[in-house]
Write a structure and sequence with these properties.
The protein is of the alpha/beta class and 286 residues long. The protein folds into two domains: 2-9 and 84-282, HAD superfamily/HAD-like (Rossmann fold), CATH 3.40.50.1000; 14-82. It has twelve helices and nine strands. It has helices at 17-24, 27-36, 40-47, 52-62, 67-75, 88-97, 113-116, 121-124, 132-136, 230-239, 254-262, 273-282; strands spanning 2-5, 12-14, 81-84, 101-106, 128-131, 143-144, 217-218, 247-251, 266-269. It has a five-stranded parallel β-sheet with strand order 5-4-1-8-9, sandwiched between helices. Helix 11 (254-262) links the parallel strand 8 and strand 9 (266-269). The longest helix has 11 residues, at 52-62. It starts with a strand and ends with a helix.
Length: 286
């Protein structure tokens, strides 16, 4: 069986309250700020590829009295990460040992995901992943349907391997393919965002390289590819040659669960590890 995991709230404890509760000294004040200023809808824009600098500038122009707190959403972003979800690393290890294939499908900014990806061993257990920010960044022009396709060889636009696509995806590579670079860099800095985040089992392809399978170019300004848009689920299925009926998707957001179900993926709403373990056991997966 193929199991597909969301990251924030399922594998990793990401919650803006970890930052803003101590800052405001009051949960209710933090709630108000996150429900009215730095909302989840606003954050989703960055998950969908909008640069944080742009998103923060726009929101600060609307709410100048909150400009400091808005800027903190990016400059102190790592304080929103509380650690691994209890029990999930052990559960994912058990699933892998049982022979299941494991994947990730997450809404996450291309600027912030590389800041923590090396800190969570559970991510290294995955056979592949699709992260919305790397698929949707509007500055990734001419990309090969996101990160270079697995199992294919990407052609290089600038002659380097594992390079950056407009400074976003340096080293963010296919799990088992060779990709081309957009700018000829080889494992460069990616503006400090994704340096060193490379292939688990192959040479890294960048979002700006052309996939060897003939995937079409992604043009600047396209609509964000982000859950619950069914197209991002279909992208993961296509990239890893998966059939919906052979997959189980696990997410803490009901809308994302429902979207997976509309394309034939069995989906489980995540509440906590013990409940998930019980549900997987009932499906004879443990």
């Amino acid at each position: 069986m193929n199991l597909i995991f969301d990251f924030g709230g399922v594998l990793i404890d990401w919650d803006p309250h970890h930052l803003y509760d101590p800052y405001f000294g009051d949960r209710a004040r933090a709630d108000w700020f996150l429900q009215n200023i730095c909302t989840m809808e606003w954050n989703t824009q960055m998950d969908g590829g909008k640069p944080f600098a742009e998103g923060i500038a726009e929101l600060s122009a609307r709410f100048p009295e909150w400009s400091k707190e808005i800027e903190m959403f990016h400059s102190q972003w790592t304080k929103m990460v509380g650690g691994p979800i209890p029990g999930m690393l052990e559960l994912v290890r058990e699933l892998k040992a049982a022979g299941h294939r494991l994947y990730g499908l997450s809404n996450w900014s291309a600027e912030t995901f590389p800041l923590i990806c090396d800190d969570y061993p559970v991510l290294n257990l995955l056979d592949g992943m699709v992260v919305s920010g790397f698929e949707s960044a509007p500055r990734v022009v001419g990309s090969a349907d996101g990160i270079a396709a697995e199992g294919t060889a990407g052609s290089a636009a600038g002659g380097g391997a594992g390079g950056a696509a407009d400074g976003h995806a340096d080293g963010f590579a296919a799990r088992s393919g060779a990709g081309g670079a957009a700018d000829g860099h080889a494992d460069g800095g990616a503006d400090g965002y994704a340096d060193g985040f490379d292939a688990r089992s192959g040479a890294g392809g960048a979002a700006g390289g052309a996939a060897g399978s003939g995937a079409g170019a992604r043009m600047s300004g396209r609509a964000p590819l982000i859950k619950p848009n069914p197209e991002i689920y279909k992208l993961l299925l296509s990239r890893y040659s998966l059939q919906p009926a052979d997959c189980i998707f696990i997410d803490d957001n009901p809308a994302n669960v429902a979207a997976a179900q509309t394309i034939g993926i069995h989906a489980i709403p995540f509440t906590n590890c013990p409940n998930l373990r019980k549900q997987l056991a009932e499906l004879n997966l443990l």
